[in-house]
Design a protein that fits this description.
It contains ten helices and nine strands. The chain is of the alpha/beta class and about 260 residues long. The protein has a domain of about 180 residues: 2-enoyl-CoA Hydratase, Chain A, domain 1 (Alpha-Beta Complex). A six-stranded mixed β-sheet has the order 1-2-3-5-7-9, with helices on both faces. A three-stranded parallel β-sheet has the order 4-6-8, covered by helices on one side. Bound molecules: (2S)-sulfonatepropionyl-amino(dethia)-CoA.
Amino acid sequence: MSMVLTQLRDNIGTIIMNNPEQRNVLNSKMVNDMLQALDELAKKKARVIVLRAYAGAKVWSAGHDINELPVAGRDPLPYDDPLETILRSIQASSLPVIAMIEGGVWGGACDLALSCDILIGTSSAALTMTPAKISVPYNASGILHFIGIMGVNIAKEMFFSAEPLTAERAEKLGILNHLVSADELESFTYELAGSIAKNSPLSIKVIKEQICLLANAHPLTPHTFERVQGLRRLVYDSKDYAEGINAFIGKRLPVFWGE
Ligand code: YZS
């Protein structure tokens, strides 16, 4: 059974993450179902996509499935990782994607929300970046994504503290496009989606790709790339990496040694 529900009305496609038991964790099944839904809605000529959780969700998405993180010694976020795949698909989609956020957003799900083109949330839409909580190094494309959207200082605070960035602060920082009340979230989102759906899809498609290309135009020398990879290996080869995952699975607080 699919972990997402899809709807299409007035050229507005909706993808509903629908796995309440596991708090919409972005496991490979959820991601595959999302990719399929994106593809289907594009084929059915949707002009804009709304990505949301099931109604009343306390958690929009709990992020990467920690049970699917590889054991120590292997890159936890490789290019073909399900989470990385959905992030690239949303960023590369010719359709504008609106993240309609009700409930907490955790770890890689923050990157998912930020990969959408417009973010609309309620006061429950806190964003918590968790790599340091489970000793994961994150990765270059993700870190650049955060820096590009919120600047270095806020990105550092989110990654270092693993504390929630409240929806109010996210809106003040321009990370959330709109902060609305729970009872107006749906109508506000679909009204904006409707105004987008009325505009030229070709123009929007071309402008979205230009913005993506220009925003991601970072010259990276081979030396820089190799240094980044070497730094990440220090973490995912570490005892702390295994400890972070085992602590989560064992439902206990991790004890980090710094090695
Ligand atoms: O015990 P059962 O089988 O009922 O399953 C529980 C949780 O184990 C499961 N679950 C997860 N399973 C795998 N990976 C996850 N990320 C994950 N999150 C939750 O869902 C069932 C219900 O969870 P509860 O904890 O009982 O639900 P609740 O008390 O409502 O708390 C919800 C939250 C989301 C606050 C809590 O589940 C939580 O803190 N989950 C971990 C959130 C997290 O740290 N996500 C980041 C994962 N890491 C990444 O995305 C990247 C690798 S990184 O860290 O680099 O950003």
